Each structure stands twice: as structure tokens, then as C-alpha cells.
Here is the input.
Amino acid sequence: MASKILVVDDEPQVERLILQLFRRQVRKKEYEFAFARNGKEALDMLEQDDDIEMVLSDLNMPEMDGLTFLARLKEAKPDMKAVIVSAYGDMKNIREAMNLGAFDFVTKPIEFEDLTTTIQKTLKEAEMVRQANFAKELEVMNEKLKELDRMKSRFFTNISHELRTPLTVISGMVDQLKKDPEAWLDKSVSMIKRNSENLLNLVNQILDLRKLETGQLELHFIQDNIILYLSYILESFHSLADQKNIKLLFESEQSELVMDYDPAKILRIVTNLLSNAIKFTPRGGTIWLKAGRRSNDLLIQVKDTGIGIPEDQLSSIFDRFYQVDTAHSRKGEGTGIGLAIVKEFVQLMEGEIWVESELNKGTTFNFALPIRQTSELKATEDKEAVAQKVKGMITKSADVEENHGPENLKEELPTLLIIEDNPDVRQYLMACLKGKYHLKVAEDGLQGEKIAISDIPDLIISDVMMPGKDGFELCESLKTDQRTSHIPFILLTAKADDESRLSGLKRGADAYLSKPFNEEELEIRIEKLLDNRRMLQQRYGSLENLSPTNDIAVQQEDEFIVSLRQAVLDNIDDENYGIPEICRDMALSRSQLHRKLKALTDKSTSHFIRSIRLQKAKELLQTTDLNVSEVAYEVGFRNPRYFSTTFSEEFGVSPNEIKK
Ligand code: ATP
Ligand code: MG
Here is the structure.
């Protein structure tokens, strides 16, 4: 393609001269020339014609002179290269032109050779600039695509979580039902029903999104009292809000406003906004639904006293799949399509939506709909029907928790800690494990961590996605805490990419189960991990030197045992060094130490301390000249007779026999 050059000159003979000089190049389609008589005309032409690659301009012209033109050109097309044509004597103007960004200059009378070289050079420069710009644009586009890709892949992982959780409950409860229909009929049927409704709701939202994308979503306006309708919707949220001890308030300047609206769309918008408000507002908060006239619009607001949204993320939250990741938000829960649908619906109804938020104070979503009265007058559903619809649209879980009070279980059965925020999944887990283990339950990561540290359970089963602290973080912190590092940890994963994250952890979980899992799978895992404990008990049973190991988990427990042993050895001749002293030195509570030691060595703390004393005694008897009484005092026994008895019990031989 010919390179297009704009020539700006008020003298008509210049046009003839240029065409004459470059006739061969024009014929061969190397160059194409366009002509303007002054700066203004040139700017107009440049505005309309994106193909112009460079400018050749005179300086002295009527209307808009060359220097003004150059200044304007710099603003309008900063990358355009301009070559000045001027008389040799006009050096001052040429300097000024160069300072205004002109690329080069030629002097009159125009010399063909010189001009050709200058044009070639300028075109080459223009081409380089174009390519650099193109590369920059590509990079920006590439970044955008990558971001979209990241959001999409997050959507898919979230969706898989949202699907797997109800599926775990459904398939799990079906198993229970099969095993013991009578005991499980009522409970499982309601859980299965609830969870399949959740699935259906999710599918409906995805379908809506799809329909919006392809422009298939239709509006069905009716004309009715929208204020009443809004109050019905809010009322349907009371039980959900009550569960979190959140106050719901309705505020409207007027009790009646008859206008056109699409009830299904309004329901979806307000339901999504209220669900979010409840989801992101801590217990004890307040949520308002407000409605009021604002000139020709109805302004509807959903205001909460929740966690708020960071300012830099406010502009993104209406994007499809976008979710704010903060320590407070329920990590990854939901799919990030709720607000995208809300925004599209509002726009479909020719309304506007915007958000105001302050971190840790609260968020207000506002949307305004034009007030019109042209549709058919028709009453919407009654309160009951609205409540029913809302029920179908919000993710539900069990509202009454199964009582997991004390049972008549044998004391020596292991204690399991279940950490899961979804009540239905929690119930299913408890149904699987009841009667076989002592069960402790936590509803989120932080609570789970507290219980794990205070109670030192024998095994932990934890969900990954939880508010506060997720399963990975919890696992990591418990595994690096000396008090809890030995506890086997099973992670319940639901996201497609959890497993890869899992393998990336230095000290990850001991096992993971992906949802949905069945009862048998769960039990096998638990039994196997509890069995592993026997291996450790053997390792620490003899108190002899520990054989080297590459297993960092075992190394960590070795360190604990070694430092415990050292603490006793450092005080071996002090008969008063007992449980309180060792707890103080190890910074553990009595029961923490007891439970950890029991798990690792199957010995009580006092038994463990005594074993170390006796081990040392055996060593002294074998390697020194000290007599039995002296050895007894040396290892902190006040009574040599008592020493001999316990020694014989521990090793099956008396100290005197060893001495021989
Ligand atoms: P979904 O609605 O698809 O189940 P979601 O609730 O995460 O998932 P959106 O409703 O689109 O998705 O919300 C996007 C994000 O905006 C949320 O993940 C959350 O980070 C933030 N957000 C929305 N509403 C609020 C609110 N009231 N307070 C604080 N953050 C909010
Ligand atoms: Mg939402």
C-alpha cells in the first residue's frame, strides 16, 4: 500500500511541483499525496483520515500558520511526524518549529534528492512509532484477556464448589437413607430437598446470565404498588436474618406507589442485594431496605452495617465473576455472578445502579428506576407467594442444629474435631461418625483453631472454604504449632484446584477427601490416620536415641520429644520437678501436654517423666561406680526402695541385677 503524505501549503504550485517530482513513485503506488491549503484544513483532514502517515508543512500560511498548526498537531496527534518546508533564511522559525516537535526540515527551493531522503527517513520513523504503539496495545489487551481468564477460571472453581457441596449432602443422605430408612427418612428428605433447590437456583442464575448475554431476556411489566411488593420481599428474609441475629428494617416515605415494574426482575435484584448484605454483615448488624421518590425515579437502597468493600475494588464488583478477597469475606463462597445479574437487570429496566461503601462500616447499594404508568394494572403475588419464591432463590441450610450432646461412649474412643461451615454438610459428617468417636464441632476456621488448641483432639476433619480462616491456613497454623502439630488433619476439598494448592504446601494435610465423598471413604481415611499414630508411639516408646528420618512431620515431633526429655534431664536430681514444672518449661497446659504425649507415646505425663528418670538411672548403673541408692538420689528418687520397685516394673530386672 502506498504511504500517504499530507502536504500543507498555500501555494498551488507546490502541489504541482510535488506531483511532478514524485510522479514515478505515485504511479508505482509507493506514495500517495493529499493537499491542504492551511493548518485548519490540514487538521480536519488528519481528523478524518487515519491513513496519513506523515505531514510536510509550510510555515507561512494564511488562516492558521505553520507554527500554530504544529502546536495543535502535537495535541491532536502526538505521534504524527511533521517535516517543515521553509526558506533558508527563516532559521528562527525553523528552530521554533523544531522545538514544537517538528521531526525535520527541508529548505526551499525544494531539492528532489534531499526531500526524498527526508521523506523516507520520516516514514521509517513513523512506522517504528506505529509498531511500538501496536505492541503496547497488544500488551494491554493481553493483560485484559489474562485477567478475564483468571476471573473465568475462578468462576469455574467456585461453581464446582457450589455444586459439590449440595451434592455431598444429597448423595451422602441417600446413603444414610438406604442404610437405615426409618431413622433417616424425615431428616434426609428435607436435607435432600433443600440442597436440590439450592442447585436449581444456581442453575437458574447461570441460565439468566446466559440469556442476558444473548439478549434473550424479556421484560414483563405490570402496574402495581411496588412499595408493598418490596416490603413482602424484605419480610421473606426475616428468618435468614434472625439466624445471624441481624435486624431488618423497611423504610419508605410513602406506603403506596403504583408504577410499572417487572416483578421477577425486581425480586431477583432485591434478593441478590439482600443476600449479599446478610452474607457480608457480621452477627448483630442491621440491614435497611429503603424506597423513596426522587423526581421521576424510584430510588431503592439496600444498606448494611457490614464489612464494606475496599475503595479500589468498588468499580469491579459489578463485573461478572468478581469477588473481593479479604480476610473477612467468606473466602470464595458464591460465584461472583449475583451483582453482574443485578446490574444487567437494572439496566434492562432503564435504571441506574451505584454503590457506596466504607470499609468495616457498611455498604449501600442504590438503584433508581424510572417511574412510568403505562402497563396493565395487575396485582402481584401475595406475601405468601413471594416468601415461597424467595425461599427458592436463597441458598439455604439447616436452621436447627442437631444436638450433639454427650453420648454413652467409651472414654477411650478417639476424639474427632469437625470444622465445617455448612450446617448440612456438618450434619452429614456427624451422621457418619456418630457413635464411633467422640465428636467436637466448630463452625468456622477460627473457632476450629481455638478448640483444636484447647482440646487437642485425636484427629481433625476440616472444610477448605470457610469464613475467617480457611482450611489451608488452619492446617498450616496447626501443623506449625507445637501443641497441635501431631494431630492428623483431613481436608475436605470441593474446588477443582484445591488439590494442586494442597501439594504446594510444605506441611499439608495428612489426607484429603474431595466432595462429594461417601461414608466408607471417610472412615477408611480416619482409621488409617489413627493407625499411623501407633507407628509414632513405637518410635517414642523406648526413649532410646531416635533413628534419623527424612519425614519433616516426624522430625517436628522428634524435636518435641527431645526437648521434653532434655527438660527432665536438666532437672534430673530435683525430686520436685514434676508436671507443673515441665508444663511451665514447655509452655503447655497440663491437659495439652497430657493429650499430646498420650497421642505420641501412649504414656501419661507422670509416666513419661518417670521413664526418663529410670532410663538415666539404668545408664548410670551401667557406666558408673555409683551404688543403687546413690543412683536413685541422682535421678530424683527420694526413696531407694520405691526406686527399686518402679525400676523392676519398667525394665523387668532389678537395679541390683543391672549393677552386677
Ligand atoms: P453469588 O452472588 O454469585 O453467589 P457473590 O455474592 O460472591 O456470589 P456478587 O453478589 O456478584 O457475588 O458480589 C461480588 C462481590 O462483591 C462479593 O464477593 C463481595 O466481595 C462483594 N460484595 C457484594 N455485596 C457486598 C456487601 N453488601 N458488603 C460487602 N461486600 C459485598
Ligand atoms: Mg451475591
The longest strand covers residues 286-294. Residues 60 and 130 are 29 Å apart (CA to CA). The radius of gyration is 39 Å.
